[in-house]
Amino acid sequence: ESLNEAKRIAARRAIDEHVEDNSVIGIGSGSTIVFAVTRLAERVKSEKLNVICVPTSFQARQLIIENKLCLGDLETHPELDCTVDGADEVDRDLTLIKGGGGCLTQEKIVASCAKKLVIIADYTKKSERLGDQYKKGIPIEVIPIAYVPVSIKIREHFGGNVTLRMAKMKAGPLVTDNGNFILDWNFPTDKNLDWPSVNETITMIPGVVETGLFVGMTSKVYFGLPDGSVKTTE
Ligand code: DER
């Protein structure tokens, strides 16, 4: 339906514009990236490209293997040309909320190793301000023993509500690819929160591994629109 078509065309444009022979590409996580990996596999096959793919999650690793793409990692490829990834929400400053799929930590690490972070998203992710459309809160990966004190400190600093993300097909909390828990922080929308300082403050709380706030990292966003066109930012 139109949402998948929007994801597909955004993914296709991004892959066609940012992948060339001998590229080392970070592969993001989620549902939109599936369209990007499909397009990448098409191009590698038809153009006989030599491309190394570095995953940002177990899901991304499976995608790379299933599509018979060349699997790399940060030990052998610590400097990437480009990371292509999805987002849960993009604001007017290209600050992202990521982590809806629970993969934010490796995504942020791989994104930080790339010359460019290219985001692909359908039109529902494009917001003026964070929280306009994405209502599940900002994901924060925490070391399991610390989830209660971290929740308390976040609420003390900034207010809002913090919930421990529970697994769906397993009793108890969701456990990430790194063996940690995730807190979802529904931040207060009536304050004008300064995302760079919010991100730094939360990241410094002992027990916090990473936040799903990607500040100042985005190079370009490809939004798939309902009419079948793609809107890009620079
Ligand atoms: O969990 C993540 O960070 C994903 O990249 C998420 O932000 C986008 O997932 P989607 O493409 O399935 O919406």
Keyword list:
234 residues, alpha/beta, seven-stranded mixed sheet, four-stranded antiparallel sheet, 6 helices, 14 strands
List the helices and strands and how they pair.
Blueprint: H1 2-18, E1 24-27, H2 32-47, E2 52-55, H3 58-66, E3 70-71, E4 80-85, E5 89-90, E6 96-97, H4 104-112, E7 114-122, E8 138-142, H5 147-158, E9 161-164, E10 181-186, H6 195-203, E11 208-211, E12 213-214, E13 220-224, E14 230-232
Parallel strand pairs: 1-2, 1-4, 2-3, 4-7, 7-13
Antiparallel strand pairs: 5-6, 6-12, 8-10, 8-11, 9-10, 13-14
Helix pairs in contact: 1-2
D-4-phosphoerythronic acid binds next to helix 4.
Strand order of the largest sheet: 3-2-1-4-7-13-14
Output the radius of gyration: 17 Å
Number of helices: 6
Alpha carbon gap, first and last residue: 28 Å
The biggest beta sheet, please?
7 strands, mixed
Q: Structural class, please?
A: alpha/beta
Fraction of residues in H or I helices: 25-40%
Q: Secondary-structure element sequence?
A: HEHEHEEEEHEEHEEHEEEE
The hetero compounds bound to this protein are: D-4-phosphoerythronic acid
Strand content: 15-25%
Q: What is the overall pLDDT average? A: 97
- Shape category: globular
**Count of DSSP E strands?**
14
Note poorly predicted spans: none
Protein name: ribose-5-phosphate isomerase
Keywords: Isomerase
GO molecular function: ribose-5-phosphate isomerase activity
Catalytic activity: aldehydo-D-ribose 5-phosphate = D-ribulose 5-phosphate
